C-alpha cells in the first residue's frame, strides 16, 4: 500500500469512527434527556423491533413498550414503521403519569418516543404530511395526526392525537403530548449533553450495552398524576430508588433488578408477596434480583406481563 492509499484509508476510518462516535453520543443524549423528563425509560434496537424476528430474539411481549409507536406510524403511512427502522440505530420511549384505562386495556401514560437515526439515512418525515404543521419550534415543524391506539381502554374508543418532529438527521420524536414533545426536542438540541442526568443511573455503563433494557427511577413525593395501583407503585416503599429490566441475548435470559437507598428489603418482600413474578433475592446490600429464561412457558411468559406493571406498562385483562 502506497502513501496515498494509506492516507485515503486513514480518512475513511476516521470518518467511520467519527460517525460511530456521533451515533453513540446521540443515543446517550437521548437517554439522558428522557431520564430527566420521565419516570420510566425503555430502549430497544431496530433488529428487535423487526416484524420478522429470528429464533434468538426475545418473545413478542418484549416489544410491548414500543407497540404504540408502530401503530401510530402506520396511521401516517402503512410502510412507515419499516422505513423508520431501516434508517434508525436505536429507539427509546419515556413514560410517566400512569393512570388506569377505562375498562380493560393498557395502563395510560404520557409518552415520548425518540428514534435515533443513522447518519447516512435519508428519511424525511415531513414529506408524509400534506397539511401545515401545528407548531414550529427551534428544532423544526411539529406534525399532528390521529391514530387508533386503544390507549384509553375498551370503554373509551376515541382516537389518540399524536405529535412528531424530525430533528435534522439525528432524531424523530413521537409523543401523545405536545408540551412533552417540545420539552424533549428543546433539550435534544441544547448544548448540554445530559451527562449529569446519567450520573445517578444505577449500573448505566453495563445497562446501556444491552440491546433491550428498561429503567424506572422512582420519583417519591413529586407532584404528578399517578395511580399507585395501576402505575405499579402500590408495593413500592420510599426506600426504593429504581428497578431495571434487561435482556441478555446470548444467554436468552431476562433480568429484573431492584435498587434501594438502604438495606431494608420491604419493597422486595412486598413484590414477592404478590406471587406475580419469580422471587427477587438479594445480590448485594441494597440490590435484589430475579433472572428468568426468555423462552420459559411457566410461570413466564404469563407473568412477564406482571413485570411490565413494575414499570407502569401493565395491562388490565
Secondary structure tally: strands: 14
User: Over all CA atoms, what is the radius of gyration?
Assistant: 20 Å
- Parts with pLDDT < 50 across at least 5 consecutive residues: 2-21
Strand order of the largest sheet: 5-6-7-8-4-2-1-9-10-11-13-12
Domain count: 2
- Give the count of helical stretches: 8
Q: What would you call the structural class?
A: alpha+beta
Q: How is the biggest beta sheet arranged? A: 12 strands, antiparallel
Mean pLDDT: 86
Helix content: 25-40%
> What share of residues are in beta strands?
25-35%
The outline comes out as globular
* Elements, N to C (H/E): HEHHEEEEEEEHHHEEEHEEHE
End-to-end separation in angstroms reads 66 Å
What does this 3D model show about the protein?
The chain has 317 residues and is an alpha+beta fold. The chain has two domains: 25-198, no CATH class; 203-316, no CATH class. The chain contains eight helices and 14 strands. The strands form two sheets. A twelve-stranded antiparallel beta sheet has the order 5-6-7-8-4-2-1-9-10-11-13-12. α1 (3-37) packs antiparallel against α4.
Topology (SSEs and partners):
Layout: H1 3-37, E1 40-44, H2 67-76, H3 80-86, E2 88-99, E3 105-106, E4 108-117, E5 135-137, E6 140-147, E7 160-167, E8 171-175, H4 178-188, H5 195-199, H6 204-207, E9 213-217, E10 240-248, E11 253-260, H7 266-274, E12 281-284, E13 287-293, H8 304-310, E14 315-316
Antiparallel strand pairs: 1-2, 1-9, 2-4, 3-14, 4-8, 5-6, 6-7, 7-8, 9-10, 10-11, 11-13, 12-13
Amino acid at each position: 500500500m502506497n502513501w496515498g492509499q494509506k492516507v485515503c484509508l486513514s480518512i475513511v476510518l476516521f470518518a467511520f469512527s467519527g460517525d460511530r462516535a456521533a451515533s453513540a453520543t446521540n443515543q446517550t443524549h437521548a437517554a439522558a434527556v428522557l431520564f430527566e423528563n420521565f419516570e420510566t425509560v425503555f430502549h430497544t434496537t431496530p433488529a428487535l423491533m423487526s416484524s420478522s424476528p429470528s429464533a434468538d430474539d426475545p418473545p413478542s411481549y418484549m416489544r410491548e413498550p414500543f407497540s404504540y409507536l408502530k401503530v401510530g406510524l402506520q396511521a401516517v403511512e402503512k410502510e412507515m414503521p419499516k422505513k423508520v427502522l431501516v434508517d434508525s440505530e436505536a429507539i427509546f420511549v419515556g413514560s410517566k403519569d400512569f393512570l388506569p384505562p377505562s375498562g380493560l386495556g393498557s395502563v395510560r401514560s404520557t409518552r415520548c418516543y425518540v428514534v435515533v437515526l443513522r447518519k447516512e439515512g435519508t428519511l424525511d418525515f415531513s414529506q408524509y404530511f400534506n397539511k401545515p404543521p401545528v407548531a414550529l419550534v427551534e428544532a423544526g415543524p411539529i406534525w399532528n395526526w390521529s391514530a387508533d391506539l386503544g390507549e384509553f381502554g375498551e370503554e373509551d374508543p376515541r382516537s389518540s392525537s399524536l405529535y412528531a418532529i424530525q430533528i435534522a438527521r439525528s432524531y424523530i420524536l413521537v409523543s401523545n403530548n405536545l408540551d412533552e414533545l417540545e420539552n424533549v426536542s428543546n433539550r435534544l438540541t441544547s448544548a448540554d449533553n445530559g451527562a449529569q442526568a446519567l450520573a445517578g443511573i444505577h449500573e448505566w455503563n453495563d445497562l446501556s450495552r444491552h440491546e433491550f433494557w428498561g429503567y424506572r427511577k422512582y420519583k417519591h413525593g413529586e407532584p404528578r398524576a399517578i395511580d399507585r395501583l395501576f402505575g405499579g407503585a402500590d408495593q413500592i416503599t420510599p426506600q426504593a430508588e429504581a428497578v431495571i429490566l434487561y435482556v441478555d441475548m446470548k444467554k436468552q435470559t431476562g433480568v429484573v433488578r431492584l435498587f434501594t437507598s438502604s438495606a431494608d428489603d420491604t419493597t422486595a418482600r412486598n413484590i414477592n408477596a404478590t406471587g406475580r413474578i419469580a422471587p427477587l433475592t438479594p445480590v448485594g446490600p441494597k440490590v435484589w434480583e430475579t433472572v428468568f429464561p426468555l423462552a420459559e412457558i411457566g410461570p413466564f411468559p404469563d407473568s412477564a406481563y406482571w413485570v411490565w406493571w413494575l414499570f407502569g406498562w401493565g395491562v388490565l385483562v
